From TrEMBL:
SUPFAM superfamilies: Sigma2 domain of RNA polymerase sigma factors, Sigma3 and sigma4 domains of RNA polymerase sigma factors. This is RNA polymerase sigma-70 region 2 domain-containing protein. One of its GO terms (molecular function) is DNA binding. It comes from the Bacteria. Keywords: DNA-binding, Sigma factor, Transcription, Transcription regulation. GO terms for biological process: DNA-templated transcription initiation. It comes from Candidatus Kaiserbacteria bacterium RIFCSPHIGHO2_02_FULL_49_34. InterPro entries: RNA_pol_sigma-70_dom, RNA_pol_sigma70, RNA_pol_sigma70_r2, RNA_pol_sigma_r2, RNA_pol_sigma_r3/r4-like, Sigma-70_RNA_pol_init_factors. PANTHER family: RNA POLYMERASE SIGMA FACTOR RPO (PTHR30603), RNA POLYMERASE SIGMA FACTOR SIGD, CHLOROPLASTIC (PTHR30603:SF47). Residues 80-139 form the RNA polymerase sigma-70 region domain.
């Protein structure tokens, strides 16, 4: 076992020393894990499938992973096909492989042997997961263009009111622009301004705010009471812009769902990767989050404890 671990570490170090990008490292580690796994492309007998299904029904994650891995090469082929036909700097091959694996896990949990072979059954789930990933980012682009138009009007109106010495709140701006208060709050976050007075009646309620507070460093804010909620919303909005696997990974690692932080070793089984590969996925996810935050004028260093 120690020799195997040593060889894996040497492989990873050689990848880094050769200057290969994190994206390529993740893909190569995925392929290494895929072909090295005994469960890869495994064919089950009818009796073995029945045992696996019973374990899956009892919420055995190892059984889900074992069944998913039996079709992982089929999934990788589909993911590579999308990468060729629909190249994207956001939905990269590494994202497609992670998303495709999530599709496999969904299929494994719903699989019934009477519905045919697992790879054939899983095909629809793989395509569905990948298509949703593309749609999510395409939808975000369309929304951004619409927001930019509204943002221009919002900033002009706000600056004119401030220049005239008028009392400015989100409620007043929302009323004058004929938009919802929540939308005005979002525009304010995009504008990255700290001059708006946040009246208590303007606060937008968010039941999930407590968990996201773990990413907010209150000591960095110039006006903590006014900006904490805004920073939480910015972080959540930027997280929604990540791929589903990246978003879920960061949420679990930083305890953004229920306040419970999970280690890379605890998270790894859900992705079908080693903890080292998950560590690199986390680095890439944090880099993507950092870029999204910087576009809003917020640095990741000022948010992460």
């Amino acid at each position: 076992m120690s020799d195997s671990i040593s060889m894996d570490l040497k492989k990873e170090l050689s990848l880094f020393s050769s200057g290969i990008s994190t994206e390529k490292v993740i893909v190569q580690l995925f392929e290494h894990e895929m072909y090295a796994s005994e469960a890869c492309n495994k064919r089950f007998t009818k009796e073995e499938l029945q045992v696996l299904q019973a374990r899956i029904l009892s919420d055995d994650q190892a059984a889900v992973h074992e069944l998913a891995m039996s079709a992982v090469q089929h999934m990788a082929s589909i993911a590579r096909s999308y990468a060729r036909k629909r190249p994207s700097h956001v939905v990269t091959l590494a994202v497609l492989l992670s998303t495709g694996y999530f599709g496999l896990e969904h299929a494994a949990r719903k699989y019934d042997a009477s519905k045919g072979t697992f790879p054939n059954y899983a095909t629809w789930w793989i395509h569905d997961a990948i298509k949703k990933e593309y749609l999510q980012h395409e939808r975000l682009v369309r929304i951004e263009k619409d927001v930019l138009r509204k943002l221009s009007t919002y900033k002009r109106m706000r600056d004119e009111m401030l220049a005239s010495g008028a009392h400015v709140t989100l409620s007043i701006l929302a009323e004058r622009m004929h938009i919802e208060l929540e939308y005005a709050a979002r525009l304010e976050e995009y504008a990255n301004a700290q001059t708006i007075t946040v009246h208590p009646s303007d606060e937008v309620q968010d039941n999930g705010g407590a968990a996201y507070q773990t990413l907010v460093d209150e000591g960095k804010a110039t006006d903590e009471s006014a900006l904490a909620g805004s920073l939480q919303t910015i972080v959540k909005d930027c997280l929604r812009g990540l791929s589903e696997p990246e978003r879920e990974l960061l949420e679990r690692f930083y305890g953004l769902r229920d306040g419970h932080e999970e280690s890379l070793k605890e998270i790894a089984p859900a992705y079908g990767y080693t903890s080292r590969a998950i560590g690199m996925m986390r680095s890439r996810a944090e880099e993507n989050l950092k870029k999204a935050l910087e576009k809003r004028g917020v640095t990741l260093a000022s948010l992460i404890d």
